[in-house]
């Protein structure tokens, strides 16, 4: 069976390591190549002088060597802890911004999922959007991303909450990342619609009616959630109240008409506040 290619960016923090360990755990039964990526940038010194260039080169080499060493050490740890013959690890040390390094690697290696750790919410973080993960979700809109909250205690996903407002008719291809995760551990897909007090329009009913066809052969059900002032609050609240939910899933509509409809950056808010891993998969607009 063809191996899945999973990208695991790291800054060698415990937060990043938690996301790596979760990916290995989730894909335990699958043939996988895990690409461990560390992106680094060396600050520009005074490049006009020869000495500046030499110094810059020396600094670059020092940073690159440290990155290579740290990746080698991390892969050694992962290999000694993870004796799964279906899994292999590949280290990548790339001198570039994190967004560029992830984008290039995703295309070059045919990556199917990117796993990233998220830090918990704070008012300050939300103002500055100081999370690399949120920036990645915003920029890398062509590959599924799984954001893993810090301190998440691993649990297999009995249920995946797929939050949708039925504004988009999902194609079979779009739902592959979600269906793929559901099939890993025979998870039930709960299609969660946040009821904001408006009746479904004709196009929304059509979108809703196509989902049972898309999820044919998988356990699935519909759930209406009421009584919340924000969509993200409703999604995170529903997950908090239902312990069976191991993953939240949403389409990445950061740049689309959905965001204009909701007047709320739901993706960002859920990513900052989720208690369980959050799958964001690409929207394919016609």
From TrEMBL:
Gene3D superfamilies membership: 3.40.50.12370
Top-level division of the source organism's lineage: Bacteria
Pfam family, one: Usp
InterPro entries, A to Z: UspA
Domain UspA: 4-148
Protein's UniProt name: Nucleotide-binding universal stress protein, UspA family
Taxonomic source organism: Arenibacter palladensis
């Amino acid at each position: 069976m063809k191996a899945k290619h999973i990208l695991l960016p790291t800054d060698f923090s415990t937060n990043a390591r938690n996301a790596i360990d979760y990916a290995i755990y989730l894909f335990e039964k699958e043939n996988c190549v895990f690409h461990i990526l560390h992106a680094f940038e060396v600050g520009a010194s005074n490049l006009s002088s020869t000495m500046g260039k030499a110094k810059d080169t020396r600094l670059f080499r020092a940073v690159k060597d440290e990155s290579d060493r740290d990746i080698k050490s991390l892969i050694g740890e992962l290999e000694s802890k993870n004796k799964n013959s279906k899994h292999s690890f590949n280290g990548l040390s790339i001198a570039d911004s994190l967004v560029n390094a992830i984008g290039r690697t995703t295309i070059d290696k045919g990556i199917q999922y990117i796993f990233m750790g998220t830090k918990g919410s704070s008012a300050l973080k939300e103002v500055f959007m100081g999370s690399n993960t949120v920036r990645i979700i915003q920029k890398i809109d062509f590959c599924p991303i799984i954001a893993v909250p810090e301190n998440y205690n691993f649990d297999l996903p009995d249920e995946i909450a797929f939050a949708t407002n039925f504004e988009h008719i999902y194609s079979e291809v779009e739902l592959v990342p979600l269906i793929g995760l559901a099939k890993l551990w025979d998870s039930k897909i709960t299609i969660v619609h946040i009821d904001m007090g408006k009746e479904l329009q004709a196009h929304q009913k059509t979108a809703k009616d196509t989902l049972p066809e898309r999820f044919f052969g998988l356990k699935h059900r519909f759930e209406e959630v009421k009584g919340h002032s924000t969509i993200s609050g409703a999604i995170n609240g529903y997950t908090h109240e239902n312990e069976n939910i191991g993953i939240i899933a949403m389409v990445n509509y950061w740049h689309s008409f959905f965001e204009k409809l909701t007047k709320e950056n739901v993706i960002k808010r859920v990513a900052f506040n989720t208690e369980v891993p959050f799958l964001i998969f690409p929207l394919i607009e016609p």
